[in-house]
TrEMBL record:
The keyword Electron transport does not apply. Residues 480-501 are annotated as: Disordered. This is ATP-binding protein. InterPro entries: AAA+_ATPase, ATPase_Atu1862_pred, HerA-like, HerA_central, P-loop_NTPase. It comes from the Bacteria. Gene3D superfamilies: P-loop containing nucleotide triphosphate hydrolases. Residues 24-213 form the AAA+ ATPase domain. GO terms for molecular function: ATP binding. SUPFAM superfamilies: P-loop containing nucleoside triphosphate hydrolases. It comes from Oryzicola mucosus.
């Protein structure tokens, strides 16, 4: 079904439609300096398309929460844990509810982490819930910065990865990204390059004008026009709007933002007692007298002479530790228990490592695990080993220790799959099915699981064989062991059992 919404008017007064179905397939990039009317444009787009498509707004300033009163959007306060935001995002896709993620009140790093967890939850939704969603990200340069800033590298990588998934891989999952930024130079190029529709507003810097002209297919001498654009006027280009650069004045909106541009207000009339108002404390102010500590009493001369004449210094008592000593055995057992609980969670296989790591830190605090928390790299390794399920004497056997050594040279995201197959070989168990390997990798694709086995074989780590009955077995030459034949098309019994529990 083709739905055209009206965004505004061209210079001649003709209406400028936007093909909503084409926008869902080709995405949109909006650029304009502060005060150019970007938020007004996004509000017009959201209001006009609200009856036709589910919407999700990533709102760093809380400007779009007013959509809830008029159009029924649910406001999600981002002051929650990342795990909660991820689960809420999954339920949003399941029930097809339009939402505004309000990030107001959080610092920049918290906003990046919250938005990343929310976008990852929408991206990782079940295939049955891949309905079309218009995902609008205001101030996108905060979540996909072109260069590192004052935030931690981990937060930047997590946020940039979520934005890249939205713009590069989101279309097949029904996610249509609409991103707005003040400057193209501040936005990561791999995120901006995935948009096929553009609305360029007023900008003044030469580098931004030149890049905007290049994206619209205009000559460099025409780039000066972006300095002369009035507020609320943009130049449109893209399959959803126009095949040629088209000036458009954005139409009116029905709702308004909570924050508006500052207006000049006359100063109050001159007051004769202004000096008294400034320098006299009001009745509600509490005055506390400044108290200086008394000077120390002078040390008697006899005491000073006695200290100087003392030959042998008094033994200094042994310092007592400020914090209680850490029982490493108890701490290791607690960490292992937390990791096991996370692995046994049926939803854990399809969550990102950053989300699982935050869940791990919260569980450790709840159980009062002493000492410094595990770094992210060590946590990923623990998860990979825990997925194999090796326990007892097998965990200390020579073949298994050698398998752990071989896995350390593989990329972190495939170590868990390798160890699951190695565990089956060490214990002579049937070869895991494609469904079990895919779940260990965090995917539902059986084809991807087969590609992983082919990758291990290319690295010279395994030899994959299929007998005449279609049963698959995997041999490990370096370990001197081999799995029993297993059906590659068998269902994932472990996942089914966890879901039933």
């Amino acid at each position: 079904m083709k739905v055209a919404i009206e965004m505004g008017a061209a210079p001649g007064g003709a209406k400028v439609p936007l093909d909503l179905e084409e926008l869902l397939a080709t995405r949109l990039l909006v650029q304009g300096n502060s005060g150019s009317g970007k938020s007004h444009l996004l509000r017009r787009l959201l209001e006009q398309s609200a009856p036709w498509v589910q919407q999700c707004v990533i709102d760093p300033e809380g400007d779009f929460v007013t959509l809830a009163d008029k159009f029924g959007h649910v406001v999600v306060d981002a002051q929650r844990t990342e795990a909660e935001l991820t689960r809420i995002a999954g339920r949003i896709r399941q029930h097809r509810v339009s939402v505004v993620l309000n990030l107001e009140g959080l610092d920049v790093e918290q906003q990046m982490r919250g938005a990343a967890a929310f976008l990852n939850g929408m991206f990782d939704a079940e295939r049955d819930f891949w309905y079309p969603v218009l995902v609008v990200v205001d101030e996108a340069q905060l979540f996909a910065p072109a260069v590192a800033g004052e935030v931690s590298d981990e937060a930047r990588r997590t946020s940039l990865g979520a934005m890249t998934n939205l713009m590069c891989r989101g279309r097949k999952r029904g996610l249509a990204g609409v991103i707005a930024t003040q400057r193209l130079a501040k936005l990561a190029k791999n995120v901006a390059a995935e948009a096929s529709n553009f609305l360029m507003g007023r900008t003044f810097l030469d580098i931004d004008m030149a890049r905007a002209a290049d994206l619209l297919g205009m000559e460099r001498r025409q780039a000066e026009m972006f300095r002369d654009l009035q507020r609320g006027n943009f130049v449109a280009l893209g399959p959803a709007m126009s095949r040629r650069p088209l000036p458009v004045a954005i139409g009116a909106v029905e709702t308004s933002a909570r924050s508006v541009s500052p207006k000049l207000t006359p100063l109050p009339e001159a007051m004769e007692d202004a000096h008294e108002l400034i320098f006299t404390a009001g009745p509600e102010e509490i005055q506390r007298p400044v108290r200086r500590p008394p000077p120390p009493a002078p040390t008697p001369t006899a005491d000073i002479i006695a200290q100087l004449s003392r030959v042998v210094a008094e033994p200094v008592p042994e310092a007592q530790p400020v914090f209680p000593l850490i029982d490493e055995t108890e701490r290791e057992a607690a960490i292992a228990k937390v990791v096991k609980e996370i692995v046994e969670d049926p939803d854990a296989a399809f969550r990102s490592d950053s989300v699982l790591y935050q869940d791990f830190l919260v569980r450790c605090r709840i159980r009062r695990v002493q000492g410094e928390p595990l770094p992210l790299a060590a946590f990923r390794r623990r998860i990979a080993v825990a997925k194999s399920g090796v326990e007892g004497e097998t965990a200390h056997s020579e073949p298994w220790l050698q398998a752990l050594s071989l896995s350390s040279g593989l990329p972190e995201d495939v170590q868990g799959v390798f160890l699951i197959v190695a565990q089956a070989a060490v214990t002579s168990a049937p070869c895991p099915s494609d469904a079990a390997l895919a779940r260990a990798y965090g995917s539902h694709s059986a084809r991807r699981a087969r590609r992983l086995l082919a990758y291990f074989e290319e690295q010279g780590l395994v030899v994959v064989r299929t007998d005449f009955h279609g049963k698959r077995s995997v041999a490990f030459p370096d370990l001197g062991c081999e799995t029993a034949p297993g059906d590659p098309d068998a269902p994932d019994h472990a996942a089914t059992q966890q879901a039933a529990e």
